[in-house]
Amino acid sequence: MAKDQEYNVQAGEPVGVIAAQSLGEPGTQMVLRTFHLAGVAATIATSGLPRIIELLDAKKMPSSPIMRIHLKESYSKSFAKADEVAKKISEIKMRSIMKRVAENFASGKILVILNEQSMQAVDLTARQAAARLAKELGVETKVGEHGNIIVNTHTKNLKDVRAVTVKITKAIVNGIEGAGKAMVAQEKGGEFYVEAAGSNIEPVMQVEGVDPGKIYTNDLFAMYRVFGVEAARNTLALELKKTLEDQDISVNDRHISLIADAMTADGTLQSIGRHGLVGKKESVFAKAAFEETVKHLINAAAFGQIDYMRGVTENILVGKQIPLGTGSVKLVIKRKETKKKEK
Amino acid sequence: MAKKVSEKCYVHLNGKAIGHVADPFAYIKEVKEARRKGVISGEVNVAYLEKLNEVHINTDRGRVRKPYIIVENGKSRLTKELFEKLEKKEIDFGYLIRNGILEFLDAEEEENALVAMTEADIGEKTTHLEVDPVSIFGFTANTAPFPETNSAPRHLMFSSYIKQAQGLYATNFNLRFESRAYILFYPQAPIVTTAAYEALKLGKHASGQNFVVALSTFYGYNMQDAVVLNKAAVDRGLARSMFYKTYSDEERRYPGGQKDIFKIPPATTEGYLGEHAYSKLSEDGVIEPEMTVEEGDVLIGKVAPPRFLEESIGAGGLEEKTRDDSIVMKPGESGVVDDVIFTESPGATRIVKVRVRGIRVPEAGDKFGSRHGQKGVVALVVPHADMPFTEQGIVPDLMLNPHGIPSRMTFGHLLETLGAKAGSLKGTRMDGTAFSEKGSERLSEYAKILEGHGFEKYGEETLFDGVTGRPFKAKLFQGVVYYNRLHHMVSNKMQVRSRGTVQILTHQPTEGKARLGGLRFGEMERDVLVAYGASLLLKERMLDQSDKATVLICKECGSIGYRDYAKRVDVCPLCNSNKLSEVEISYAFKLLLDEIKSLHIRPQVGMEE
Questions:
Q1: Model confidence over A135-180: pLDDT tens digits?
Q2: Is the pLDDT of residue B6 over 60?
């Protein structure tokens, strides 16, 4: 027997239950242990049990998304070049750089008074902001004398002016929507890359200098959309592993892999629960035993479903031997027949 | 406090607005002065709520109030002269209240006060002085020695354990018919006490004993909070207690003129328990004092009218049917009848109360706790000969695992060990009141006493192994600790079942000691067997030892049928087929099928050979 085969699990081994237990038990310890590192304000990310739940529920967007964007060789060598890219990505909202908005309904113009301090902090000029604002909203903008932005709405309709004002406060003046604050980071090898506190990888890939094949995000669905299920599976397994390691909990990789496999086995990302894996179970009884009992029974009756008794839950329910472990083997030749032959 | 002139400041009396004042502070001052002078009742409390800009005056009942010494201009009103008078007992507490030296604050007024812990802490803004620092603790918490040297959670835990301690809870326990009572045979006052303990005179009806405790392991028998007891000490009456339980019953009256009767039920009674069960009853149907009783014995014989009216009518009026409703000793219970009383309810029905007593000798499984939140269960009672001993022949009563100390940070436990040891040598009680001015000096004080009596300064002694007779390499910390025997005792809790009662609805075993139930093999336990792949063991647990049912299922239509014993055939009531097979399923599943049917859904069961 080959060495690797010695370590294979045997047929009928309930690997799923073991994986669930192996992940569930440390989960009970995790609830009480949430430590916060003082000082490092930027790195407060969902961790521990909430993050695990988020992953297993296959949530559409993580509550603290993060992107790691690697750059093309010509950009990754110097900080200045990398910073150039980071600036193109870093998302800045109008709300964060302006003091207030003054509307002139008589002329149909809106004056946006900027906060110089916060402008400096993000290294953005009024001219740049005005240009982006014009592009975003499709309006005419110019920079006024005190470094303020004047928006000409070309309308004197009260309602329309106010609508533009609302849009202005919500508008993005720099970077990519949803990308969050992007900063340059350096790898151990010396290469520079960009880290962003948001996730929207499709437009980021278009940015010049970004290596489109080397973008990582903790948003499972973005990985699934852009790179496919395999990438989503790997991201899921990696994120699970990382979250557990952060809490100093060691779970064998195989359990994590199995869970990631189970969630992506049909080529899509499924959550573990009513809307995902459990909901897709074959057995009516197994589904009814989990959640929404009556709904499943009524559906089964309406469609005349048959329960083939192939799972664990339904066999325990009726009192049969479960088709796992020692119950997974059946006699091929029946006793009566052998006796006949002996005679 | 910022003064808000522009807004009206409303005054609330017991939660109802009664008016408003221009200057709340002047107003409050006036009220307080009136109270201190005795113009208005001392039970009136007044508080200014800054956020609401309101004055609240409370005079209603149910407020928790605490006395404080009034501080004025940075000086305590309880002057030295007054204090001396107090010591000479020329004046009393009431005098101090009446003369505005002490006053009671409620929760709301306390929010406005700045209280100094000691006289030295008094600053410019101080309004009150704490009578004693220990008053931050309550009744129970104040009975523990050295609480300031323990971690707070442990102190809190002690406060809840002490309520479970067995002791002399009332001196008239002989006359009382408590549903459950525990009396310690030889209660002792602790050697290390606190001022509050003495003031409350708890030593007069103590709830513990001073144990000689060695901090030592014992062949692994005191792992994880388990403790080891000395058999000889137990035989001498250590922590021995009496357990009392009262059974009572009433001669109830029913509509229709029927009533219960206390008497030995005649054999014709429904549910008759057999002659033997009633053999200890006297003529009046109630047991006599000093009778030894065991499980199954009837304590109070009672016959009741039948539960349903039809039965008595069905009897044709010839002989009235009766039902046995006697009080029987529950499984596992035994003891001696201590006392029997007859009394009457407000409804003029007779009531009988029977008190049964039983000695509870400490045994493996009983729970003990010290006054430092250190609880443990007895794991072994060791023969005297096998216990470790000192040079002088001192043998510990209890051995506590030293690993339980560092992580719990109950230094007070160690301090008490030393203090009580010193106290027992010196022949005096020692003081362990919280926040003592002596502080760490206490330790050197104890060391001095111990040294003076020829003992090791810090309590470590060379002990000899009782089994081999050789000295232990390490010196062991030994001393005296006041231990409480908590009322959780195995003999009142243990229960076994192999076969037994099942629930009517599900045919599954019942739950709980009172119903002779089993221990639930729950979902997580089930998962463990699934994970191990032990399919037959799982089936045995979930089916064979639970709610196995054999039903007949029609081979043709898959519905449940029945056996017609008269015609000796199996019948399917739906398709009239006679081809049915016996199938073993869980009764719960049969019930599920029945419930599905009640929803007008027809389930069919398919089978394979």
A1: 888 788 888 877 788 888 887 788 888 888 888 888 888 888 888 8
A2: no
Reduce the DSSP state of residue B228 to 3 states and report it: strand
Is B534 part of the contact surface with chain A (CB cutoff 8 Å)? yes
Cβ contacts (< 8 Å) between A328 and chain B: which residues?
533, 535
Give, to the nearest 10 degrees, the angle between helix A253-264 and helix A229-246: 140
* Digit-coded pLDDT (tens) for B338-376: 999 999 999 889 999 999 999 999 999 999 999 999 999
| CATH number attached to the domain at A67-89+179-217 | 3.30.70
- A92-174 and A282-328 in the same fold: no
Chain A touched by B585 (CB under 8 Å): yes
Question: Residue B502 gets which letter from DSSP?
Answer: B
Facing B527 at nearest CB: one of A21, A319, A321: A21
Q: Which residues pair with B380 in a beta bridge?
A: B228
- Which of A18, A297, A327 has its CB closest to that of B596? A297
Distance CA A197, CA B99 (A): 68
| Pairwise CA distance, residues A336 & A343, whole Å | 11
Fold for A282-328, please state it: DNA polymerase; domain 1 (1.10.150)
DSSP state of B55: E
Tokens 């409804």 locate to B347
Instruction: Tell me, yes or no, if the pTM score tops 0.90.
Output: no
Contact of B607 with chain A, judged by CB distance below 8 Å, is answered with: no
| Closest by Cβ to A324, choosing from B535, B588, B592 | B535
Residue type, B112: N
ipTM score for this prediction: 0.77
> Does the distance separating the beta carbons of B543 and A17 come in below 8 Å?
no
Q: Do B530 and A297 touch (CB under 8 A)?
A: no
Residues from chain B that touch A322, judged by Cβ atoms under 8 A, are 530, 535, 538-539
| CA proximity to B116, closest of B151, B174, B75 | B75
What's domain A12-61+222-264's architecture? Orthogonal Bundle (1.10)
Q: Which residues of B touch A306 (CB under 8 A)?
A: 606
- Chain B positions touching A316 (Cβ under 8 A) are 526, 538, 542
Torsion angles phi and psi, residue A15, rounded to 5: -60, -35
For chain B, the 3-state helix, strand and coil shares in percent, each to the nearest 5, are 25, 30, 45
